[in-house]
Structure formats: structure tokens, C-alpha cells
Here is the input.
Amino acid sequence: MSDDEGKGESPETPSLEERTRKAGRLPGDRYVRIHQSSDFRRRGDRYVIGEDALRPEGPVGRAYEAVRRFLFGPRLSMEAEESERLGVFTGLAILGSDNISSSAYATEEAMRVLALAGIGAFVFLTPIAIAIVGVLAIVVLSQSQVIQAYPNGGGSYVVASDNLGVLPGLVAAAALLIDYVLTVAVSTAAGVQAVTSFVPNLHPYSVEVGLVFIAILMIGNLRGVREAGVMFAGPTYVYIAAVGLLILYGIFRVLTGDVPPAAVPPDPFGPEGEVPLVGLTGVLLILRAFASGSVGLTGSEAIANGVPSMQKDERRNATVTLVVMGVTFSTIFLGLTFLAQAIGTIPDRSETETLNSLLTRSLVGYTPLYYVVQGSTALLLALAANTGFTGFPRLASVLANDRFMPRQFAYRGERLAFSFGIVALAVVSAAVLVWREGSVTELIPFYTIGVFLAFTLSQTGLVRRWRRLRSPGWQWRAGLNLLGALVTGLVLVIVLVAKAGEGAWLVVLVIPVIVSLLLAIHRHYMQMQDALVIERLDEEVPAVRPPVVIIPVGRLDRATARAIGFARSISPAVKAVHVATSEESAREFRTRWDHWAGKVPLDLIESPYRSLVPPLLRYIDALQEKDPERPITVVLASFVPHSWWEWLLHSQTALRLKASLLFRPNTIVVDVPYHYDDSHDHQGKRH
Amino acid sequence: MSDDEGKGESPETPSLEERTRKAGRLPGDRYVRIHQSSDFRRRGDRYVIGEDALRPEGPVGRAYEAVRRFLFGPRLSMEAEESERLGVFTGLAILGSDNISSSAYATEEAMRVLALAGIGAFVFLTPIAIAIVGVLAIVVLSQSQVIQAYPNGGGSYVVASDNLGVLPGLVAAAALLIDYVLTVAVSTAAGVQAVTSFVPNLHPYSVEVGLVFIAILMIGNLRGVREAGVMFAGPTYVYIAAVGLLILYGIFRVLTGDVPPAAVPPDPFGPEGEVPLVGLTGVLLILRAFASGSVGLTGSEAIANGVPSMQKDERRNATVTLVVMGVTFSTIFLGLTFLAQAIGTIPDRSETETLNSLLTRSLVGYTPLYYVVQGSTALLLALAANTGFTGFPRLASVLANDRFMPRQFAYRGERLAFSFGIVALAVVSAAVLVWREGSVTELIPFYTIGVFLAFTLSQTGLVRRWRRLRSPGWQWRAGLNLLGALVTGLVLVIVLVAKAGEGAWLVVLVIPVIVSLLLAIHRHYMQMQDALVIERLDEEVPAVRPPVVIIPVGRLDRATARAIGFARSISPAVKAVHVATSEESAREFRTRWDHWAGKVPLDLIESPYRSLVPPLLRYIDALQEKDPERPITVVLASFVPHSWWEWLLHSQTALRLKASLLFRPNTIVVDVPYHYDDSHDHQGKRH
Here is the structure.
């Protein structure tokens, strides 16, 4: 063996190759192979884990698993992803319900503004409604182009960042993120209002009821997009059927000349208004009415954002759903507007009764149909909160993939849902609800602004896209989107000006804050990538010299013995170090050490000030000064007690040492745990 | 080299000896030696760390150090311990102040009980006072024997557990621990009362003032016992001097026949009492008066508990201090009692004015001496809280050394104080103060019970001791202590019966709870010792086979490369494992891996349910099933970002994996950190 000496470049640090060559074989599969158990199936060059192996053991684990299954259902494998997707029928219910539900109040919103100039101004209602449907048509057309161009979802954010640049994209993203949070908060509040008007005793618990509602939505969405669909299909289609029936019946009566008398609200608007309908003031009022009615356009972006959750062919299905949604909304909206005009229904100034209710009451009185219409409307408005739960996690996952949000948002949970985003949305919107103590109506303008900001950016982005691509027919596409951008931009400006006093100014504060947060996150990930990325894959994994191993030793016991054993097994250069507070104790320790573990060299440090961690840190410093390149590994013996409270009985010196070493370069800390049970094994073997 | 093959008993696991023999040398000091820096001095076979090396670096660390120095003073080395000790002068102030301060109210306490039988019953005052002084004499004598027999402190706990058994010892300890907490709470409340009667505006902030007071006491004590002495010597000696002067002046006037008229309190007791002073009732009343006056005996255990903090010769100094304390208390107590009798002072039924104040007022009126007496009394009563701060940490350290309390209580801080006990006492007594909202008078009986329980147990213990040792004169010693045990036991029973309704029953609940807590802690430490202790020191440190090293790999980057490098440096048996969620990603990873780190074998796990941690755990299970004895080391690559919030941007998979592996036997987890700055070093080297 002596002819080995001095051959290697550093004799005390034989390389891996050297060591394994000596052992006569290459390291690898041959001698470290897993036991083929029922947990794994071998498939080609890999192991596939079965669902059984994921089930926790022990009573607590099993109870947790049972609760998890009850709440969220069984785990879904990656292969189940296809079957989890939405068809047109469920897609309309899940992604279209927000927009369709707007038809219940869009007419009234426009009329309330016109009524400021007296009920005579209602002659402008039909033109405004037609204009809104026109804008919706433009939006639907442009969204269908978004679906074709960007089938991976992300909607306005993707369109804007792809065509206008990162910053406009992030502004659109921030606006939409805020929107989704507000959709949940506002719709939940609406749902709670509906519940508490049925059960007045619950009124003092409005916030709590809202939190329960959000929790139910969260669990429904964590169960996966399809199961959430089942929750929504009912109310959506009942609403469409009942309101459709009502409109058909109404039109039949109007056409047959059997127009019923208009039901009178508790506090109708008068014939004279406060604002004269002349000159610029008049034009502005009509524009404001248009802007208010445009609330009916909100929610129409959900389908373009959610294309990847549609069944194949995703683009076709999404487009069909989008068109069906647009037609459904327009039909109901125009139908209700026509009937309101024909019957001469005047909205209630005090907002006690909705226009919808007045209209239904005029036509059918307090019949079962009235209750079906009202009930399904209330339910649908509340469930519009779900749009937030489909939109937010998906947009967040797109942002996370682009490294603008934490990576956790891009992971799919056990039910294939973006669990992290769902939970985050529930938490944030619950916080908004608690913060506003359940009264969120003032947040609505904020929300409209977000929607139209995103629309404007996305339409502008599409204009740029057509001009760049110059594909056949790009002129009319660009023209259409330009018109769309102008119209939605105009609505945005009108809402901003009209609602400036009502909190819309918050947008100016919150959107920049969110955008800079997204940018900060991005900067971090990019820095990390710069730091970690390996430019060339054929750069070899660096060979590291065996580390110098230091074992801080407090006393001589089994835990220390195990730590020393481990240290000796990983490196030939092992040193123990003991901190003593007095000369006598240092001397005594040396004697016992030499007797017990004399093979391992021991350094003694006398610390007359009784501190433990700083002397060890200085010791490591001093060791490293000698050979700064060589890695240092600190091996700590730690006793793992039975239960958490027993931790408190041990001084946390090891913990403090670890914390101090965490940020130290070229230093690795290894905890060698000694379990209480180990000693039994040990003793079992000895006796 | 080929002749090496197959020689070792397990060729892939060369032992330390083998490896170092190959390297031609023994492991040890020779090639791993610390850089002799200014931080360490070499002294014999050890390094001594200087105080400079303990100073933190960086602006935050230096600011912290400056604040620490300002609050607690410079670190004290072990050698300074001697100079930190107390002489008789400071010892009396620190350890005797609680007892001496009792002389301010003991007379009044006894008189208030007697007054229930009318002021005629005051004739029994002098015999009762003499009896109390007699009991004190017995207590002082027995304490002086405790000092001789148990010079390491611990007082009643040590005496009782040494002579009566563990359980009586722990009962005494629990009683004393409670007492110390209550001493702090009660005295603080008294101090706050004194402050707020001067500054009534502070009254609504009583609790806050109390917390500030406790914080000051805590800091004073953390500065060390000597510096705390400086705080206390003033008030104690001013009180002794002023009250002594008053008594001398009073006696002079009584002897010269110039007896002043007694000052009349706002609400004096009348000549007729509610309780007739006849038969058993009368005897009981006198006994109760005696019990109430015995409050003057509280605090007398402090010196015997604190012997180790006295200067050498500790026993002599402690005994002298004890005797001086007894004489001082008795003189003042008897003097005040005599004057109260001679002048005919009647205590105030409404407790608005103290007897002490009435007496001083009768003799000297509202002169400066009056204010000095009153002021120093108030200050001394408040500072009696400090007895808790000297007693509790010391008793806790004795209990910790006996493994009945967490080991942290036995450590001495940088100023040689038992920092942990001081902080714990401050926290608990502050909690009591907050819980009682600053009104703690109802806790006083509880407190007296604790003191007399400890006294009784300790005196009984001494009786057993003398009977066992039978040293010369044991009969009279045993007789004396038997008398002491009977008297203190009687007082205990009287207080228990008399105060049962006032919360004394709590003792019955709290003491057993504390005792069982102490026993549980002891059980844990004993189990741990059983588990860890090495029976024979010549049992060799076990040689451990090189571990199987597993590296869970998420992606190929510098952090992973470093982890692989480390793993290869510590063992020839390294395996990487990657969890993929789909077949394609698994295949892609395999291709890149083979290209990049093909030397290290890779196992692929396909996890169609997207979970990461459970498949890794099952994988480790399966590996271990193959070779259950072989240790497994899991090496994790972790990126250490700049700031804490950046942590949130990384999924905590590694953390969850570590938590799951913590309680797994035969498994060691190593975190290989990759620091943001490392990449700069790296890039710096490359370019």
C-alpha cells in the first residue's frame, strides 16, 4: 500500500473515482437499489408511485385523509385532467354566469342615471341598450380573437404584455387580480344580503355568513373545476329559462296589446329631474347612463382567460361558449329593457325593490314564476363570486409561470385545481369582507374601472398585433379593435370621472403598488436564475474535496457517539471541539475524551464568559482562515425527544448555532438526530 | 493499486483507519489546525477566547452590543465570580431587606386581630411580640444550622429533600417558588400604591407602572448580584437608621415620663370588640393574632438559600448576616410594639393610615424625620420584591441541577447571574400582576402559607437529620428544631384555617400541579439520561458505514451541482432522485441528467398525483427495506436568498421533507446551502 503515498494531488482527500476504483467498481445502481414494493410500479426506466402509497399512516394521518377525501374528493391523477375539463354547457355556467347575471341589473343601472333628468329621458334607454349590446359584440369579437391567438389563457394580461410590453401587461394583470378579489367580496355581500332578507335573525352575523359562503366556494373550487360546474349549472339555467319565459310572455302580451299596468315602486322617480337634458350636461348624462349600463359587460373576459379549462378543441368550444354567452346576455338585456319601456316601469329611488322585481310583478304578479325569477336571480348574483375563483387562480398561475408571482401559484393540487391561488383568493377576499364589515357596495366603481382598464389595454394590444402581423383582413380586425379600445377607453374615463369621489381614486394607489410588487418578485426570480443557472449542460459537476468535519461536543453520550460515528464515516478529517467555562472542567473533559475517543482529535476552548455560540463561530473562522477554499461541515448531535414540550427542556444552543451558520459561506450543518427509541434498539441488542 | 481490491470486509466502505492509513498518516491536529488569531490565546492544551472575539460585527450587532452593555454592563469572566459576591453589609441589604421590612407592619397585623376583641385585648400584644421574636430566634438558629449543613444554597428544598425524601422536598420547593413569585407581585403592588399616592394621575396606569417596576428589578438583577446590592443598600440602611432613631427618641421620652398623646386615626377601633376574649374563642383569637404577626418571619429564609452568593468564608458571613438580620428585625419590631403600647396608639380600622405613621406622627409630628421614616418604609417595602429575584433564580438553579427544572435555569449569564430564572420570574410575576389587574392583597395569605409550609418541612427535616447523625449536642438541636417545627406547623394550620375562605385553598390546587410538573421534567431527564448515557467509557465510538446518500433533485442548477459535489465528497454511494408529474417531463429530465451528471445514478419517480414529499418518503422506505442497518443521508440543495420575504417565494417542499424525516430513525438530513453571493464568487472566478 505504501506505493500509494503521495500519488494523488492531495493525499488526505481521495476523490470519488479513486475511492470507488479502489473498491473495484463504479458507484451506482448496482449496489444501491430500492426494494420493489407495492408502493412503486416499475415503468421503463422509472418508478411510478400508486395512490395507495400516498395515504398517510397512523390514526391522525388516517383521520386527516378521511376528512380531506370528504371535503375534496379522491386525488386525481394527471391523466384525469382531460375529463376534468368543461364543455359548452358547464362552461357557460362556470365562466359565463358572471356576465349573464349582469343582465339582471344592467337596465336598471342605466335608467337610474337617466332618471336624474326626469323619466322623460327614458326615451334614450333603447339607443343606450343597443349601444351597450354593440360594445358587447365588439368585446365578444375581440375576445374570440384573443381565444384564437392566446389559447393558453391569461386573457388581457397576456394580450397586453405580448403586444404592448411588460408594464401594460402587469397593469392589466393587477386590475384583473383586484377585480377578481372584489367580484368575490361584492357578490358574497350580495348573497349574504339575499340570505339575511330571508332570515333576518342572521343579520348581525352578516360577516360570519359571508365567511362561510367564501369557505364553501373555496372548498367547491378545491374539489376541481368540474365539480364546481355542477354547483353552478342549476341556478344559471333556471335563471335563463325563467327570465326567457318571462320575456316571451311579456312580448306576447305587448304584441297582443294586453299591456299590464306598471307596478309602482315604494319611491318612484318623478317626471322632472334635477339635471336638464340639454347641451354638454345632457350629453354627459347620457354617456354616464351608458357607462352605468356597461356594467353588463363585466365578466365577459372570463371565457378568454379560461380557455385551457375547456374540452378539446379548446378554441372552438371556448368561442362557441363565448358567443352563446353574448347572445344570452344580449337577449335578456334587450328583452328586459324593451319590456321596461313598453310597460313604463319606473325604477325605485330608494333601491328597496329592483326593476327586475317590479317588471316581473307587473307581468305575472306574485305567482310561482315571480319567486322562481327572483330566487334564481339572487342565487346567480351570489354565485357570480365563483368567477373570481375561476379567474384568479388561473391568471395567478400564468403570472407565476412568467415569474411575476410566487411559484406556488403555478402548482396544481391533488384535484388538479390551482389550490394555492384558490386559498389565497379566499383569504384576501375574506379579509376585504371583514375589513369593510360586509358593506362593499362602495367598491363597485373600483371594480368596473378594473374591468374596463383591462379591456382597453387588451383591445389596444390587439390593434398592435394586427398591424404587426398584417395577416389577411387585418385592416377590419384592427379597425374593430380600435373601435373597441376607443369605446372601452371612453367608458373607463367616464367611470373614473363620475366615480372619482366614490373611491375610484384608490385604483391610482393600489394598481401601482401591486405592479411594483409583481416586478419585485420578478426581479428576485431573475436574480436567482442568474445566480443558479448553469450555462452549459456539459459543464461537469464540480468535485468537492472531503470537508473538514467539526463536531461541537457538549458531553460524552450516545448522541455524541453517533455524531462522531457519522462524521468519521463521511470524512477522514474530523475534529471535535468542546467549550469549557473553566480550566478544571476543560482538563477533566480532556482526560475523559482521551480515554474514550482519543482517535478523534479534540480542541478545547475555554470561554471564561460562559458564552457558547460565539467561541464556536470564532473557532470555525480561525479554521477557515487557514484554508479558505476547503468546505467545513459542522456535525451536531441532537437528541430528539418524544413530544414537543420536551424540546423546551433542552437548551437551544444547537438551534442558535445553526441559525448563525446559515448565512455563512462554504459551511454545511448536519444534524445527527438521536431518537429516544434508538436507545431501546441499542439496549435491545446489548442485552 | 489492484492488490487493494477485496481486502476490506466491505470494499465500498473503507473505514477511517483504512483511508487515513492509505494517506500515510493519522487523522488529527496535524493537518487541520486553527489559525492562531487574536481571538484565541493558546494556554496549555487549550485555546482561551478573549472578550473582544465575542463582540458582534456589523452595525446591527454593534448597536445591540452597545445597548446590552448599557443595560447590563460588560461581560464578567468566571474569575470575576469571587468579586461579585456579597459581604455582610450588602448581604444584609440584599438578602435581609425582606425580613427587615416586615418590621414595618408586623405589629399592626397582630393588633388588628386583637382589636376584634376590643382595644383591651392589646394587653396580649407584648407577650405575642415576644413569642414571635422567640419563634424568629428558633428560625434563625435553625437557619444557621442549615447554612452550616448545606452551604450550597437551596434552603428548605435541600433540607427537606435530603432528610425527608424527594416529595417533601419538592413540596417545599413548589411553596417557595410560588412565594417568590408572589413576593414580587405583592411588593410591586405595594410599591405602585406608594407611587400612585404621590402621583394620583398615574393611578389608571397602575398595572403599567408595576410592569416598569418589574422590568427595572429584572435589569438590575441581570446586571449581577453586586450591582443589585447598590440599589438596595440605600433604602435598607436609611430605614434602619431612621426607625432606630425614632425608637431611641420614643424610649427616651417614655422613660423621662414625657409620653406624647397618641395620634388618632381616621377610624379607630373601639373599646368593645365583636369577639369576646373568653374560652376557646379567646385562645383562638390570640393564636390568630400570633399567626398574623408571624408575617414578620417571612423573608428570613433568604439568607440560607443564598449562601453561595456570600464572600468567603461563606458560612461565617452568612451566619453573621443572619444574626444581624434577626437582631435588627427583633429590635425594631419590639421597639415599635413597646412604643405603640406605651403611647396607646390604636390602629386604623379603615387601613387609611398605618400604625407606623400614627406612631411616628405622635412622637415627632410632621417633621422631616416623619417623611424620612415613611419614605424609606415605602421604598423598602417595594424593594422587598427583590428577595424574589435573589431567591427564585438560585432555587431554580438548584432544582435544575437536580434535573427538576429545565437545564437553562442552571446556566449563568454573561454577568454571572442566573439570567434565565430572572427573566422567567419577571415574566410570571408580571403575568400575575396583569391577571389580578394590580390588586394582589388577596394573595398574601397564600404567600404566608408557602413560607410556613417550607419552614415546617425544613425544621422537620433537621430533626430527622440530628437524630440520624447523633453528633455531639444532637439532643438539644433536635429539640430546638422540633419546637420550631411544631410552632411553624401550628402557625401554618392557623393561617390555613383562618384564611381558608380568602384563597388559601388555592395552595391545595397549585402546589400539587407544580410538584407534578417538576416530577414530569425529572422523568424526562432521567429517561434521556438512560437513553444517552454510556455505561463504560472504554466502549469505543461506533464505526459507522458510509451512508447511502440520496439527493432529491428538482432541477439542474448550481445549487444542485453543489449538493451533488458535497454528496460525492462524503460517500461513494450517491443516488439522485427526481419526482416528475408526467412521463414526458420524466423522459426529458433523464436525457438532460445523463448528459450532465451521468456519473451519479438517477432514479425517476413518476407521481401522477403531483405530490412530492410522500413519494420521496416511500422511496426512502423502499431503499431502507433493502438494507435496514445502513444509515441514509438525504442531501438537500437549498438556495439562501438575501432577505426573509424572498423565502416566501420558494415552495417549502424542502422544509416539509425535513419535518417528515425528523423523526425517522437512521436518517440524517443535510442542507447544502447555496448563497446568493456564492454565484458572484463563482462568476468572478470564471470571468
About this structure: Residues 1-31, 681-687 of chain B have pLDDT under 50 and may be disordered. Chain B touches chain A through 147 residues (CB under 8 Å).
